[in-house]
Amino acid sequence: MSNSRKVHVKSFGCQMNVYDSNRMADTLAPAGYAETAAAEDADLVILNTCHIREKAAEKVYSEIGRIRVMKEEAARQGRTMLIAVAGCVAQAEGEEIMRRAGAVDLVVGSQNYHRLPEMIARAQHGEKVVDTEFPLEDKFAALSAPAREATAKRGVTSFVTVQEGCDKFCTFCVVPYTRGAEVSRPVTQVVAEVERLAEAGVREITLIGQNVNAYHGEGEDGAPSSLGKLLRRLSRMPGICRLRYTTSHPRDMNDDLYRAHAEVEELMPYVHLPVQSGSDRILDAMNRKHTREEYLAVIARLRAARPDIALSSDFIVGFPGETEQDFGDTLALIEEVGFASAFSFMYSPRPGTPAAEMEEQVAAEVKSERLQRLQALITRGQRAFNAGFAGKTLDVLLEKPGRLPGQLVGKSPYLQAVQVMAPRSLLGSVAPVTITEVGSNSLFGELAEHTAPQLAAAGA
Ligand code: SAM
Ligand code: SF4
To answer: Which of 370, 404, 393 is nearest to 445 (CA)?
Structure first.
């Protein structure tokens, strides 16, 4: 079928939503929808939403307001524009979205994307469609495979969801309610998807999941596979030169994964390992199922396996009952570990989660002041980490053109953005780059001398 209609998908929140947005676009391609970056031209606008914090959820409603204006303009021009709300807000709020925002035509929960073509057909007949049931069928198996052209357009790095959902029930978190129970995709399904991506020119794969290191998908031999085993299997795939994974839970780190860090060359030395707090009292109230000491022991194992490993984390400040002493414990943990980077958030009470009902909610000004102190410390750590690379040569996977003419941007093994003057013919290859300047968010460098033969081979 020719692509006569246009779909615009806007992603909010985590990488899992970015991946889902791409897969929604893939699933709509056979139904005649081509992706467009311009929402105003689209016949269908999908907002793939995030419910993790209140601000993220509220953003959706202002975005719907903006798209509604475009929908009204399209109607004046005699065109129909459908608005779909997908993702975790859709899952959590369901029909409520239709009540609050009458312009919305479809609400599709995070497990039902494969049903989109059929839902759209109903909405085109004027029906308001809501589908947020957790289905029995396997969403991943039912979703269309990415079309080769679409994949090629998406560049040299790609996310692949291998695990979804969470059974941990941290007391602050909505994920177990919006994404459902933990499930892992079978190895054969993941391998087939990565093969297709490699054929389309993807060189780096990041395996993603809410608790990706809890991965236990069916292996090619029928027995459950660990994430370590899956990484080893993918490391043998032609064309794939880098592997990463995110997000991990400290409790789910295991020997297979530590060994993979020591032995699998393609596995990059970077782990995102959220700790949330450095206080045992708060970790317990959060139901994190690990102590500060256990977290530090995991870090020690990772460093023993791969001494140069870079670490990042997530932190929540102002969890109910957090005292200045608890917060001090978090700052001390940050100093002790020395993170390469980190995400940090003010605690946001989420309806239906146990922490939202807890007494001793922390005042907004206290949260905000603690966040600033924590972020200043993280930034200092990040600068110190980056400064250590001045004058060193790093392997950089060159991903895309930079802002300046003749410049390419890529990533170091430690996930730092690196800007370098290099010919476009090197896009998609790993080049040694000597770091000449260290900025707060990225490194700047020059192609190392020994790149010359490679440049000649590339005809530059
Ligand atoms: N599964 C991962 C883990 O266990 O760390 C992370 C999942 S969550 C999508 C990403 C981050 O959002 C969390 O690590 C946490 O720091 C933050 N987060 C989750 N719920 C939150 C809340 N109610 N308020 C503030 N931050 C929150
Ligand atoms: Fe949320 Fe905790 Fe599950 Fe992470 S482990 S997704 S923070 S419930």
So the answer is: 393
Nearest atom within ligand 2 for CA of residue 286: 2
pLDDT at 454: 55
pLDDT exceeds cutoff 70 at 207: yes
Average pLDDT for the chain: 92
Query: Assign residue 335 a region: left if phi > 0, alpha if psi is -120 to 50, beta otherwise?
Result: alpha
Pocket test for ligand 2, best of 14, 169, 313 (most atoms within 8 A of CB): 169
Least confident of 184-198, 225-239, 368-382, 438-452: 438-452
Give residue-wise pLDDT tens across range 18-27.
999 988 998 8
* Residue type for position 460: A
> Which H or E run includes 66?
helix 54-76
The DSSP H or E segment spanning 17 is: helix 15-28
Tell me, using a 6 A CB cutoff, whether residue 210 lines ligand 2: yes
Within 13 Å, how many C-alpha atoms sit on residue 112's CB side?
Answer: 26
Beta bridge partners of 352: none
Residue with more model confidence, 133 or 414: 414
Query: 44: which strand partners?
Result: 7, 82
Helix axes 292-305 and 324-337, enclosed angle (nearest 10): 10
Question: Cis link prior to 451 (omega < 30° from 0)?
Answer: no
Query: Burial of 448 by CB count in 10 Å (0-12 exposed, 13-18 middle, 19+ buried)?
Result: middle
For residue 110 and ligand 2, the question of a CB distance below 6 A is answered with no
Q: Look at ligand 1, atom 4, and give the residue with the nearest C-alpha.
A: 249
Helix (H) or strand (E) segment spanning residue 366: helix 364-387
Only one residue has tokens 């020997």, namely 255
Question: How do strand 129-131 and strand 106-108 relate by DSSP bridges?
Answer: parallel
The rounded Å distance from CA 170 to ligand 2 centre is: 5
Quick one: which ligand is closest to 167's CA? Answer: 2
Sorting pLDDT into bands at 50, 70 and 90, what band is 352?
Answer: very high
